[in-house]
Specification:
Length: 129
């Protein structure tokens, strides 16, 4: 079962690839989002570079309850059933499908606000979710 969204706020799903910048800016801007402390921040990480990402998340995220999950299947296209001609789009799509399934089905939320590691949220990001 899932966790109920506090105060009617949806969880925020932050999809992260293998880069710390501009993720650092996204996290800084998330801090200023109205109601963020009432939401669960669900971070899904694809690919490698885990240690720098974990250090950044540990240092920067003290404004919301946070859960971190690793999309381990994206390191190898063959594990997804793809071949050499694939460009990475399939891995990206796989991460999207996996992350949405995680939050909506596994965690049981009826909806989720989505964000990526290179999209800067505005202070009213959650006002319309």
């Amino acid at each position: 079962g899932g966790l109920p969204a506090a105060a009617g706020r949806p969880p925020v799903w932050l999809r992260v690839c293998q880069r710390t910048g501009p993720l650092d800016q996204v996290l800084h801007r998330l801090r200023a989002v109205r109601g963020i402390s009432e939401s669960l921040l669900v971070v899904t990480v694809a690919r490698a570079l885990l240690e720098p990402l974990l250090r950044l998340l540990a240092a920067a995220v003290d404004f919301a309850e946070t859960r971190i999950f690793f999309h381990a299947f994206t390191h190898d296209r063959r594990s997804l059933g793809f071949h050499g001609w694939d460009t990475g789009v399939h891995r990206l799509n796989s991460h999207y499908a996996w992350g949405l399934r995680l939050v909506l089905e596994e965690m049981g939320y009826p909806y989720v606000a989505t964000l990526e590691d290179d999209l800067l949220p505005s202070p009213d990001f959650l006002d319309f979710h």
